[in-house]
Amino acid sequence: EKNMDGLNGMIRLVHHHPETIIVEYKQATQLILKQIKNLRSQVGRSAVHVVGDMFEHLKRSMESDIEKIALPLIMKTGETNRFLREDCNQALDRMVENVSPSRAIAVITAEPLNNKNP
What we know:
- This protein is 75% helix and 0% strand.
- It is mainly α.
- The protein is globular.
- The model has no long low-confidence stretch (mean pLDDT 89).
């Protein structure tokens, strides 16, 4: 419940006060990435929505940590939960639409360092 309240607050901040997120960008990103990996699908989906909204509203400000953000989203596209997969794909689409094309291509085509399936 607290995680969901926090994520909903983040969505409101991203929509209405994106400059606040930019000031605390590193810390906010770390906390959101932690929630993307949360085992509760509802929490994970909300975190994915926050990331998608961040790409849409913060645009190129997100490029500094794009690898850290995109990798968990790409990994989650293999989940069995259809709704979570679709949300991750939408967040990745928003990433591609709002960052430089060269960065988006580099991140999406990069081989993850910890890939267990060669």
